[in-house]
Write a structure and sequence with these properties.
alpha/beta, 12 strands
Length: 326
C-alpha cells in the first residue's frame, strides 16, 4: 500500500512517521512536480502542508487514490469540485487544536478585561497607576460556529461564569455546551447583547465575507470581536472602519485574507486590534499529536474499520454527529 505525503521531503519532516515504514510504502512530494510523479499507485495521500493546493492540478493522476487525510482542521485548500464528486474519503485533524485555541481566546479576553497592555506600558515607563478593572464573569459571549472548536471554547468559558451562546445552521435547545444555539438566519437580539463575538466558522460559500459592515454595525459598541476561524470570513476593510469609528471596542484576529500579511497592510495599524500570525492552534508537541492521529486512523483503515473525522465534502467540515450539520 502506497502512502504519499504532500508538503514533506522526507521522514525527518514528519517526526514519528518512520514507525509505519514497515507497514506501507511511503513516498514524499514536497512540491507539485513530485506529487505528479508519486500520485500514480498511491492509495492514501496525507496533506502535511494543509494550506497546499497542488492536488487540484494533479488530480488526473490520482487514479488509485481512496483516502486523503488532511493535517489541519480546515480543508478548503483541497475541497475542489472533482474531489467533492469523487468517492475518495476525506478526513481531517479535527479535535487536535480545540483546547489550545480555546485557551488562546480566553487569553485575549483576559488581556483586554484586565488591561494587561496598559499595565505593561506603565511598568516600562515606571508609572504607578492602580485602577479598577473589569471582570469576565457574567459577560455574554456569542460563538459563530458550533463545531468542535466552538464547543471547546464554550466549555472553557463556561467554567469561569460566562454565558455562552452559539450560532449554527439550525436552532437548538438544551444543548450541552451552549446556553442557546441560534440559527444563523435568526440571531435576533443576541448579537447586540453580546460582550464578545467569536468567529470559528468553517470555510464554505456561505461564510465568505460573513463578518461585514452590516454585521459590525449590529454589535454592541462596547463589544470585542475575535476571529480564529477562517480569514476569508471577515471583510477586513469593514472591520478596520468599525474600529476607527468606535462601532466596536476592539478585536483580535489570528487569521487573515492574505497570509502572511504584507508590510503595508492597514491591519497592522488598526486601532484596538491585536493581530497574531495564525498561531492560536500551534502548541509545543502538536506535530506528534497530528502524526499520531493519522497513524491511529491508518490502523482503522487497514483493519477495514470506520475512519474518524470524515469530512462531509458537500459541507466542507466534519458534522458533530450523524444527526447534525454544525
Amino acid at each position: 500500500m502506497k502512502v504519499v505525503i504532500l508538503g514533506a521531503s522526507s521522514e525527518t519532516d514528519v517526526p514519528g512517521i518512520e514507525s509505519i515504514t514497515g507497514t506501507v510504502d511511503l513516498a514524499f512530494a514536497p512540491d507539485e512536480v513530485a506529487l505528479g510523479v508519486e500520485l500514480p499507485g498511491s492509495e492514501i495521500l496525507v496533506g502535511w502542508d494543509f494550506q497546499g493546493n497542488e492536488l487540484v492540478h494533479q488530480w488526473h493522476r490520482a487514479l488509485d487514490l481512496k483516502w486523503i487525510h488532511w493535517c489541519g482542521a480546515g480543508v478548503d485548500a483541497v475541497l475542489f469540485e472533482d474531489l467533492q464528486k469523487s468517492d475518495v474519503v476525506l478526513t481531517n485533524a479535527r479535535g487536535i487544536f480545540d483546547r489550545v485555541m480555546a485557551e488562546y481566546v480566553l487569553g485575549y479576553m483576559l488581556v483586554e478585561t484586565k488591561d494587561f497592555i496598559t499595565t505593561r506600558k506603565n511598568q516600562e515607563n515606571h508609572v504607578w497607576n492602580s485602577r479598577s478593572i473589569a471582570k469576565l464573569q457574567g459577560d455574554h459571549v456569542l460563538v459563530f460556529g458550533v463545531g468542535s472548536i466552538g464547543r471547546e471554547i464554550a466549555r472553557v468559558l463556561n467554567t469561569i461564569g460566562l454565558r455562552v451562546s452559539g450560532v449554527g445552521r439550525s436552532e437548538r435547545k438544551n444543548d450541552p455546551d451552549f446556553y442557546k444555539v441560534y440559527a444563523s438566519s435568526n440571531i435576533g437580539s443576541a448579537l447586540p447583547e453580546s460582550n464578545w463575538v467569536i468567529g470559528v466558522l468553517p470555510s464554505t460559500p456561505e461564510t465568505v465575507q460573513y463578518f461585514d459592515a452590516a454585521f459590525f454595525s449590529k454589535m454592541n459598541s462596547g463589544a470585542r470581536f475575535i476571529n480564529v476561524g477562517r480569514g476569508g470570513a471577515v471583510v477586513e476593510a469593514d472591520l478596520i472602519n468599525a474600529l476607527e469609528q468606535n462601532t466596536i471596542a476592539g478585536a483580535m484576529l489570528d487569521v487573515f485574507n492574505t497570509e502572511p500579511m504584507k508590510q503595508n497592510d492597514p491591519l497592522w495599524d488598526a486601532p484596538n486590534l491585536l493581530a497574531s500570525p495564525h498561531m492560536s492552534g500551534d502548541y509545543q508537541g502538536y506535530v506528534a499529536d497530528v502524526v499520531n492521529q493519522f497513524k491511529d486512523n491508518l490502523e482503522k483503515y487497514m483493519a477495514g474499520q470506520p475512519l474518524l473525522n470524515i469530512v462531509d465534502k458537500s459541507l466542507g467540515f466534519v458534522p458533530s454527529s450523524p444527526e447534525r450539520t454544525d
